[in-house]
Amino acid sequence: MPITSDYSDGVPTISYCLTDMAGQVLAERNAGVTxxxxxxxxxxxxxAAMRAVERGExxxxxxxxxxHTFTSGAGSREQFxxxxxxxxxxxxxxxxxxxxGTVLGRMITVSSNEATNLAVQLLGxxxxxxxxxxxGADESVMERLIGDIDALRAGLTHRVSARDLARIMxxxxxxxxxxxDLTEMMLGWLRAQEYPVIGTEVQxxxxxxxxxxxxxxxxxxxxxxxxxxxxxxxxSAGYILAVCTRxxxxxxxxxxxxxxxxxxxxLATMPDAAPA
Length: 276
Hints:
This protein has 9 helices and 12 strands. It is α+β, with helices and mostly antiparallel strands.
């Protein structure tokens, strides 16, 4: 049954974009269609933060005070908090100090919403949207903090497309986002991501493949974007796949992403793979 929500119009939609590591498109469908981003927008926050670190504007060691409470971006400027069951248990207690590096790692590996908001508060939305533009993600935007329902009702959103997600991942993986040590740190977090869909399927069809990814989901929305490296191959021989879905039950969306991932792996690893 089609799923409607604040993020889904209930019309079942699947979009994907498959590229090689040179950025050439191998296959795509509805790649420019935009979706509510869910947590995939955290990739743009990561790029913005690492660019700021490289410029010396921020430091991975700088202190950040942990909190569950944030100020809405809506006109009311009301405070909002996450429900206790949604807290990231790996973050230090509220009021304690952690570091920006820890915050960014939690944002990617366990998709921590508190960590994301802490990073965005340091960066500001202009920096995040500048990072999207830097990646060539022209159809995407971040306008509010995670969990800011008042801002959502005021029309502020997060938006991505499969094409843009592939471009953001390509920018990270190829080292265009930041210098080599920061790139390796980002790749490590993406490899440690605890909610993979594409990566799980790739391991099922080609055991020993390397991958790193960022998934995202809310009611009626499920996405994943990953870089994949076939067994024994260098990173440069891999590929990038982004799949976005809207309007499906969670299990059906995951099955759709896995199906596209299996087909994409076959296509991308064919000896004569070339742009379609």
